[in-house]
């Protein structure tokens, strides 16, 4: 889910962090996501991230002025990539039910195949990290929240469209959209990326979840909105 200009360190050598491939931060983000996933923000140190990379922490500070800036960038880029995947599906020329099933399937696969950054992003921003950082990083946090709202809005729109076409039952759309996202995002809790899974097995899991959330919206399944 391109990007984000993160904090500039005192030495003034901060590079734009949004396009990880372009400025060489892809490996750093991957190592950081792995450690944030395993240990959380507070318990993870820049030294530990550097150890995963097999480099000095100077390599990280060349791109990121603080651990918090790196933490925010993991969130930001994961969400941007998910949105880049989701927008064309939501805008495709297909029925709402087909688009919702396709989007749920794609999101489930994305979580399983790029597990660490997506798990970190789905766990949410740690409030104490947000509170103790300055105004520029709070602006980044607002942008992350906007991206989350936009992503949820794609599901809201598809459900509303499905209600209009009669494919989905009338319901409390925003509540149902959160339930749909919750069913998909729960993969970040129970899926084990260290257990070897074939592409066919991953596809089966993604299809099962996508069918579950789509069929659950059909008329006669959900209670009608009061």
What would you note in describing this structure?
The protein has a single domain (20-215), classed as Orthogonal Bundle (Tetracycline Repressor, domain 2). The longest helix has 31 residues, at 135-165. The relative contact order is 0.13. It is 70% helix and 0% strand. The protein has helices at residues 20-23, 26-43, 46-53, 57-63, 67-90, 96-113, 115-123, 127-131, 135-165, 173-185, 187-190, 199-215. Residues 1-18 have low confidence and may be disordered. It is mainly α and 226 residues long. It is elongated and about 60 Å long. The protein starts with 19 loop residues before the first helix and ends in an 11-residue tail after the last helix.
Task: Write a compact overview of the structure shown.
The chain is 70% helix and 0% strand. With 226 residues, it is mainly α.
């Amino acid at each position: 889910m391109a990007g984000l200009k993160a904090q500039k360190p005192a030495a003034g050598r901060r590079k734009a962090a949004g396009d990880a491939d372009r400025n060489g931060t892809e490996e750093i983000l991957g190592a950081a996501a792995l450690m944030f996933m395993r240990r959380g923000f507070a318990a993870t140190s820049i030294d530990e991230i550097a150890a995963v990379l097999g480099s000095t922490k100077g390599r990280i500070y060349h791109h990121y002025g603080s651990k918090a800036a790196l933490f925010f960038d993991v969130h930001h880029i994961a969400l941007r990539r998910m949105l880049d995947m989701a927008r064309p599906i939501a805008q495709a020329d297909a029925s709402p039910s087909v688009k919702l099933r396709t989007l749920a399937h794609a999101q489930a696969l994305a979580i399983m195949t790029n597990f660490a950054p997506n798990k970190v992003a789905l766990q949410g921003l740690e409030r104490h990290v947000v509170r103790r950082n300055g105004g520029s990083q709070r602006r980044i946090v607002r942008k992350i929240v906007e991206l989350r709202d936009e992503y949820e809005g794609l599901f809201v729109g598809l459900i509303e469209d499905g209600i209009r076409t009669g494919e989905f039952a009338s319901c409390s759309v925003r509540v149902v959209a959160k339930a749909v996202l919750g069913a998909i995002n729960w993969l970040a809790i129970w899926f084990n990326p260290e257990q070897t899974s074939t592409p066919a097995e991953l596809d089966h899991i993604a299809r099962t979840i996508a069918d579950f959330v789509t069929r659950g919206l059909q008329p006669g399944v959900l209670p009608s909105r009061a």
